[in-house]
Structures are given as structure tokens and as C-alpha cells.
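Encode chain A's predicted structure.
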Amino acid sequence: MNPSQQPRPARLAVGVVGAGRVGPALACALQQAGHRPVAVSGVSDTSVRRAARMLPDVPLVPPAQVLELADLVLLTVPDDALPSLVEGLAETGAVRPGQLLVHTSGRYGTAVLDPARRAGALPLALHPAMTFTGTEVDVQRLAGCSFGVTAPEELRLAAEALVIEMGGEPEWIAEENRPLYHAALALGANHLVTLVAQSMELLAKAGVEHPDRMLGPLLGAALDNALRSGDGALTGPVARGDAGTVAAHVSELRRHAPGAVAGYLAMARATADRALAHGLLKPELAEDLLGVLADTESEGGDR
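Encoded structure for chain A:
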């Protein structure tokens, strides 16, 4: 049979519990793949408006009714709210046997869905490794996005198919490795936003009219180099062992942005350790540099 003549796989009625930034985007992606969003729940005014904008004509209903109407339910709530949500839905009998229950938390695997699994649900953990804006642009950004996937072996093909239908690439994460996986992503993505925002604030204080324009090419090149070369991409005064320059940095930060000092010192120490371990920082220069970092830290503690 010609591949184009093969019967299409079953289309699913999709429900979303939690109309935050992630849920509506994934539902839209599944809709583009031929599935049918049938219900969404949201609490805040922002969530309600987002659902109305991104999933027009899809009724807004309570969570239990979402499960009643959907074959595939996306649980897209904050990590800390997920366990109690799952327990509550299972205890009230909202979960139906054979229903696909998918959460998008990076922290958890499928064990958090055990109450629902005992009620007959099919548990999947599909975490898109991407930051979301809560707008339609997120759907396009899913193309090529890696998903951290955890699922029972018998549901492996189903999990892969859903990720691929949303435009993503499945990356299998063992249940016991989910917290480490999520910590790695948070370290890279969440902390990056903080560092960039601090850098823009400091450039503005230094008189730079368009900090974003100045940082764009620099950060783009740094990110590309880091992804290609890892620690081999380290550069700057810490990696070179310029202790005097680092001391001057800390002095200026204490004057103009004291809240950034602790982060600068922590990242400088981590950078020095990695540069030293990879032979980029000469040991004789590392001693002076680490001495400066220790001295400037103690000065801050004395104040």
C-alpha cells in the first residue's frame, strides 16, 4: 500500500487542565496534527483570555468535565500543584480507564500519575524543553523542540508519536533522572534570563542606549560557541586569570548593583574551576584569581 493511502491513526479528543502558557500551545499543535480540542479549564482571568484567544470555540469547563469529554488530557499546571490535582481527580472518579493522561512537568516522571494509573489511566510525562510566551508563536517554536519523555514501555510508541505530531523530538529520560534533568534545564535557561537581565541593567547604568543591541551578537556567539565547544568556549577575564580586572568588576558592582555581587562571585568561581580543570587557566594565575574572589567575598560579609 502506498504510504499516502494508509489509514490515519485514531484522532483524539483533547482536553487541557490548566490554561497557562504551555497547555493551549500544545493543544493547538495537536489540533494542527488532526486531533480535536474539546475542553479547557482555567482559573485566572489571564488563563481564561488565553484559552479564548488560542482555542476559540473550545468550551471552558471545570477540570472534572475536561476529563469527561477528552480521550487525551494535558495536565499543564505548576509542578507543585500537580500531585494534589492528580490525587483529587482520581479520588472523585473523574479518571476514565484507557484515558491518556499527559503532564508537562519537567520535575516529575510518571510516578506522580500513579493515582490516576490505578484508576485505569495511561500515564505519560512529556516535557517540552522550551520557554513559552503564552502566545501563538509558541506553536511554531515547537518545531524541532526536544521533549523530555518518560512513559511505561508499553506506551513508548504512543509517547513518541504524540511528540512527533507536535513537531518535537522525543528524548527519553529515566524516571529517577527527572529531577536532575529538570535542574540542568533550569540552570541553563532560567538563570540565563537572570544573567542577561542583570547585564542589560548594568549596561544602561553605564550609559549604553540600546543594551539589547549590544548584547545580541555577543550572547548569540557565546551561546553558539558553548553549544559547539563546551568549556573550550570559555573566555574573558576569569578564564584568562586577570585577577585585577575581576577585582575592579566586583568593586564597581558593589557601588552600582550590590544585588549582583553574590551571583558574579559564584559564577566567577565556577568559571575558574572549569577553566582550570580544562587547562585554559594557568595554575599560577588561578591562585591569584581565587585569592581575589575570596577577599572580595569576605569584604562583602564584613559590611
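Confidence is low (pLDDT under 50) at residues 1-9.
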